[in-house]
Amino acid sequence: MAKPPPAPSPEFLRKVAEAEVAQFPAKGGRTRSADELLHELQVHQIELQMQNESLRQSQLALEESRDRYLSLYEFAPVGYVTVSCEGLIRQLNLTAATLLGQDRARLLNRRFAGLFIAEDRDRWHRLILTVLKRQDSSSGEFILQRGDQERFHVRLDCRAMDGGVVRASLTDVSAWKRAEEGLRIAAVAFESQEAMMVTDANSVILRVNQAFTRVTGFEADEVIGKTPAVLSSGRHDKSFYLRMWQALREQGFWQGEMWNRRKSGKIYAEWLCISVVCAPDGRISHYVGTFSEITQNKEAEAEIHRLAYYDPLTHLPNRRLLQDRIGQAMAGSSRSGHHGALLFLDLDNFKTINDTRGHEVGDQLLIETARRIQAGVREGDTVARLGGDEFVVILEDLSNEAQNAALQAGLVGEKIRDALAQAYFIGEQRHHCSASLGVTLFQNHLEPVEMLLRHADLAMYKAKEAGRNTLRFFDPAMQTAVEERSSLEADLRLALERRQLRLYYQPQVDADERLIGAEALLRWQHPDRGLVPPGDFIPLAEETGLILPIGLWVLETACANIEAWSASPILRDLRLAVNVSARQFQQPDFVAQVTGLLAQTGANPRRLKMELTESMVLKDVADTFGKMHALEALGIGFSLDDFGTGHSSLSYLTRLPLEQIKIDRSFVLNLPHSVNDGIVAQTIITMARGLGLDVIAEGVETEPQRAFLARHDCHAYQGYLFARPLPLAEFEAFAQHPREDA
Ligand code: C2E
Ligand code: MG
Ligand code: MG
Q1: Of the ligands numbered here, which is closest to the C-alpha atom of 642?
Q2: What is the tens place of the pLDDT at every residue in 318-335?
Q3: Which helix (H) or strand (E) holds 218?
Q4: Structural domain boundaries enclosing 565
Q5: Mind listing the pLDDT tens digit for each residue in 76-95?
Q6: Residue 316 has pLDDT above 90, yes or no
Q7: Mean pLDDT, residues 364-368
Q8: I need a surface site. Which of 41, 276, 295, 455 has the fewest CB within 10 A?
Q9: How far is the CA of 534 from the centre of ligand 1 (A)?
């Protein structure tokens, strides 16, 4: 503001007044004194001063208002940009420069369009042209780019101004846009697949989405204003909700499975997550619950559980669940002191029914069996199906005295056995299918579950052995026998590779006690058990299949001996008999094996004799015939061992390429006193002679036995009377001097 001229001093005014009076003593017909004039001047001066002051005041006000306007302009909440008709920035306020992220000086005279993203430039050009052309205003939303390439949304309100320029006001709407986007997402999210429910702090429902209606069956207007209690299934107790509210208070969040009730009344399972929404002051303002239905998962879970623990055919617990239940029953018994029992059931002829009547009938029979067993036990007792035709029953809470408990278990077992022995009517047919039962008692849980099952199983086998449709209790002696057998089996597997097998040779002599041959008999030199006779391990070897490598070893050893003996004048004419087991003989490549062995050892097949038993010959007659003929063609002879003990069919005997029949030891034993045995022995000899076969008696221990046999035309013998089975060296020594060693 321009400063007013300084006020004249009083001395200066007096001088001016005196000069005026001196020059114009009278003015307007009146004379004035200098004082009067001075007074006038002073008044005038005051007036002037007042005028000056008011001028200064208005100037000040003007300046203030201009400043105000300027700062209003510069710091306005919106940016102002004045754009020329060529599109250049002619002016802009500080807000605009800040918004555009650049110095004002650098922005001036730049093309405003250069600040728009490429896609928006055309629209901007059209807008400014329209505004200029129509001399009015228009607005639009655009995306601009800051110096640092950051994009932001602006709203441009443009107005045509004098001088062919456009004043555009810029409002940054990015935050608003983001909020709008957030709202849009929230709206979409709210209508998502998950059911949602928003309540106020008092659990009054404010909003639900469509998925909520889908799951619960309630429309929004049916639940808004109510509490979620409308969905309550009544399946959760108070403590469930207490825990839920506690979690919400302490963690602001809860999730879990919840059973709720639909509008239709049907109960369903849902997975519910509840979040607490707090106001800025920290107080709870809302609860947001989202949930999805898991009824199907639950049903699937139940189905999986059913499949995992129950037998699909009979719906009885399966082996897995049974093991669990046995464990529980054992624990229960050790707490209460009561005995429990395990009943192991196996149907006696189920396989035959299943094979001959079809699986459909088999299935029906199993279902009926399950029903009958269940009917025979108490409610709490477990009946399980182990698989196939095997069932197990757990009886609990029997007496705490073993004998009484056995009595109780036996009674239940007999009742079940009896029920199962009754005829089954399936379709039009009547079927019979009894069961064998094994029972074992338990009173504590010292034994593993598997062991208990094995005991019951063993007892069941004893019941089978005892003729089926019967019940047997487990006896520890059974266990010992089983353990013995399994340790023997483990040892036998190693016997061959550890060279523990031996061949002994028992001489065979003629009427003049001349050595005519020998039978090779197997022994097992066991490190702890000593020399184990074949009767103790051959049946096991047959069961386990170990007889195959063992039998091959026997044949190979025998052939090697034959070949070794061929150089000795005394031994070279001997026939060596080897026992061949059924399983060994049934191998499809048995003939090839023997051919191979003969070639390998160079043994003369005519010196080799195979001892077969009646039962094995009759097992698969066609196959046996074929093999015997093939082997006979190689030069090998056959002797029928243990004759008289089996069920020989004479018609077969005549067709077999046999050379010899061996009278079993059991018929020789009581000769000559036993009239019956005498008749049997005689008959065998006569029959053999009739068929043109040789006959030899085994187990000849006494001279009267030999004499009897000789009298009845049997002139070949094997037995202790002549020699026991001997190790190779001893046998060879015996061959040199038979009579002395006998
Ligand atoms: P086996 O073939 O009937 O053999 C005759 C058995 O009677 C032999 O018993 C023999 O030692 C015995 N023995 C012979 N003379 C007398 C006697 O005067 N009195 C008495 N008390 N016994 C006599 P071993 O050696 O214990 O053989 C038993 C069975 O084992 C044999 O009966 C045979 O079936 C089987 N066996 C032996 N070695 C083999 C083999 O290498 N392979 C196969 N598969 N089985 C064999
Ligand atoms: Mg024999
Ligand atoms: Mg025999």
Answers
A1: 3
A2: 999 999 999 999 989 988
A3: none
A4: 500-741
A5: 889 999 999 999 999 999 99
A6: yes
A7: 94
A8: 295
A9: 7
689 CB-contact burial (10 Å; exposed 0-12 / middle 13-18 / buried 19+): middle
The pairing of strands 79-84 and 575-579 is unpaired
Phi, psi for 206 (deg, rounded to 5): -105, -35
Check if the beta carbon of residue 169 is closer than 8 Å to that of residue 201: no
Ligand 2: distance of its center to the CA of 233 in Å? 81
| CA of 663, nearest ligand number | 3
pLDDT of residue 169: 93
Cβ proximity of 663 and 714 under 8 Å: yes
- CA end-to-end span of the chain, whole Å? 159
pLDDT at residue 8 above 80? Answer: no
Q: Is 204 helix (H, G, I), strand (E, B) or coil?
A: coil
3-state secondary structure 56-118: HHHHHHHHHHHHHHHHHHHCCCCEEEEEECCCEEEEECHHHHHHHCCCHHHHCCCEHHHHECH
CB 506 within 8 A of CB 699: no
Q: Which of 492, 502, 579, 722 to mutate to test the pocket of ligand 1 (most atoms within 8 A of CB)?
A: 579
Is the alpha carbon torsion for 320, 321, 322, 324 positive or negative? positive
Indicate if the pLDDT at residue 301 is higher than 80. no
Q: Where are the beta strands (DSSP E) in 557-647?
A: 575-579, 608-613, 637-643
Which residues lie below 8 Å from residue 464, measured CB to CB, with a gap of 6+?
A: 346, 348, 436
The percentage of residues in the chain with a pLDDT greater than 90, rounded to a whole number, is: 60
Distance 601 CA to ligand 2 centre (A): 23
Shared domain for 642 and 732, answered yes or no, is yes
Q: Which of 424, 458, 492 is the last residue of a domain?
A: 492
Query: Is the pLDDT at 1 greater than 60, yes or no?
Result: no
Which tokens is 117 given? 């993203």
pLDDT of 741 > 50? The answer is no
Asked if 733 and 518 count as a contact pair (C-beta separation under 8 A), the reply is: no
Q: Can you tell me the distance from the alpha carbon of 473 to that of 653, in angstroms, rounded to the nearest whole number?
A: 44
Query: What's the one-letter identity of residue 15?
Result: K
Query: In the predicted model, is pLDDT for residue 742 greater than 60?
Result: no
CA distances from 646 to 171, 652, 693 (A): 114, 13, 18
Domain CATH number, residue 119: 3.30.450.20
Residues 207 and 139 in one domain: no
Best CA proximity match to 542, nearest among 492, 483, 615, 491: 492
Question: How would you list the strands of the sheet with 253-261, edge to edge?
Answer: 205-208, 195-200, 284-293, 267-278, 253-261
Q: Of 470, 492, 514, which residue constitutes the final position of a domain?
A: 492
What is the reported pLDDT for 686? Answer: 93
Angle between helices 449-465 and 319-336 (to 10 degrees): 100
Give alpha helix (H) positions in 376-448: 402-421
Asked whether the whole model's pTM tops 0.70, one would answer no
403 is a domain residue: yes
Distance CA 225, CA 357 (A): 68
- Ligand 1 pocket, mutate which of 508, 521, 546 (most atoms under 8 A from CB): 521
CA-nearest residue for atom 13, ligand 1, is 699
Using one digit for the tens of pLDDT, what is the confidence trace for 33-52?
A: 778 888 888 888 888 888 88
* pLDDT reading at 253 higher than 60: yes
- Which atom of ligand 1 lies at the shortest distance from residue 664's CA? 3
Mark whether 701 and 584 lie in a shared domain.
yes
Q: Closest ligand 1 atom, CA of 700?
A: 18
Mean pLDDT value across residues 145-157: 86
Q: Which residue has the tokens 């520890």?
A: 476
* Selection from 655, 659, 658, 662 nearest residue 681 by Cα: 662
Distance 714 CA to ligand 2 centre (A): 18
> Please, how many CA atoms are within 13 Å of residue 577, restricted to the half-sphere of its CB?
25
Q: How many domains does the chain have?
A: 5
Phi, psi of 646 (to 5 degrees): -100, -160
pLDDT digits (tens, 9 = 90+) for 447-474: 788 889 999 999 999 999 888 899 999 9
